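Why does residue order matter? Because the sequence determines the fold. Keep that principle in mind as you read this record.
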Amino acid sequence: MSKQKEYAEMYYFGYFKKLYESWEESTNKMMDVWMNSPLMDRAVEKSSEFKDYIHGFIEQTLETRCSPQKREMDRLVDTIDSLEAKIAELEAKIAGLESRPAKTATQRTAAKKPARKAKEKK
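Structure:
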């Protein structure tokens, strides 16, 4: 590389280095002023108070609206247990009906006809 090209690159990158250093220095001064300002202390205090308020509000809302109470959960468990027992009982009845020999259609209608005729005569 020629000396002239090297100097041009050094100058080019040196320009960005100086620009960055200038930006960093001015930003540091601005942040020092801002952080040491009484307004910043007040803003941090109010922000913390607002965060605490929001957390309290969320906690209260979740406690009162979203989560079921223990007695509600116990009642639900009892209901589910009761339904499971009834389902088991019905399944046993169905299994018993399926295992009995089925009556023919003519036997069922013959058994029902006299009962209907008796009702019609009255």
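The radius of gyration is 44 Å.
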